[in-house]
Amino acid sequence: MGQYQRLFLIADPAMRHSQALQRAAALAEASGAALHITAFVEPFATFALLEKSVREQIREDHLREHREWLADEAGLLRSKGLKVTTEAVWTNQTLKEILLHVSEMQPDLLIKDVQHEPALKRAFVTPLDWHLLRECPAPVHLIGALTHALPRKVVAAVDPSSPESESSGLNQRIIQEATGLALQCNAELHLVYSYDLSSVFLTETDARSGVWPALVEKMQASQKATLEALAERYGVPAERRHFIIGPPTTALADFASQIQADVMVMGTSQRKGLNKLVGSTTEHLLYQVPCSILAIRV
């Protein structure tokens, strides 16, 4: 039995043979999973101002066009032996519809192209991708840059210093998901921990007295030992364990570029208050990391 039995692809109506479609097809072929493809078609801004009969005609025309496109794509995939079903859904509540589909289907993986949104727009409107990272109960695979349809290098990004990650078992789930994906794709599995020194607070007196270098070295050694213990527990080879220094968003993006990663598996959570407005490391990496993200929610 493969790593996946049910895959759910959200097809972008503006992108026909998209990168997410290529990844979903490759994973379905490798795992033997059933693939369900849905195109969520949203009405345009002035749609409600039209007469009812005109609205109905436009709706039917749009749905027919997307059903025909999906039928063509499904035919190509079925010719390769894949099990594929499709549908086109007309909605002005895309997030709600997606979550309803996930609840009903219980997919092993939701796959979608990254929707790049300008920073100014993100300040006022939360992107759909961010909503999915925060609210979708299934693992969310957001496809950015796609070098290989089937991943060759999978990175599990963990934070063993986080009490929340340890108590919730998030690090373990991240590694297990990354391991399963790597085994399914015959890919390399890497384990990375980005340690942010800015979290260490020392006074100017401490720095002058020499406390800073000694304490930093001690803390780095402690954090690296924690990573090594986690890697040993899951049998990650020594040459694929990476302890890097720097702010997580920048450091992880640089690391992914350096090793030419295909997928970075990370954790995410429902965010509240100011954190919800600012966004998480995983959310911001969508726009910086030169690979795809597979997010596991707490």
State the CATH superfamily name of the largest domain: HUPs
> What is the architecture of the largest domain at the second tier of CATH?
3-Layer(aba) Sandwich
Radius of gyration: 22 Å
Distance between the termini: 26 Å
Query: Main sheet, how many strands, which sense, barrel?
Result: 10 strands, mixed
Residue runs with pLDDT of under 50 for 5 or more positions? 271-279
- Number of helical runs? 12
Shape: globular
* CATH class category of the largest domain: Alpha Beta
As for the number of domains, it is 2
- Helix-strand string: EHEHEHEHHEEHHEHHEHEHHE
What is the CATH topology classification name of the largest domain?
Rossmann fold
Structural class: alpha/beta
Mean pLDDT: 86
Outline the structure in words:
With 298 residues, the chain is an alpha/beta fold. The chain has two domains: 1-113, Rossmann fold, CATH 3.40.50.620; 148-298, Rossmann fold (3-Layer(aba) Sandwich). 47% of the residues lie in helices and 20% in strands. The chain has twelve helices and ten strands. It has a ten-stranded mixed sheet with strand order 3-2-1-4-5-10-9-6-7-8, sandwiched between helices. Helix 1 links the parallel strand 1 (6-11) and strand 2 (34-41). The longest helix is centred in the first third of the chain and has 27 residues, at 52-78. The radius of gyration is 22 Å and the shape is globular.
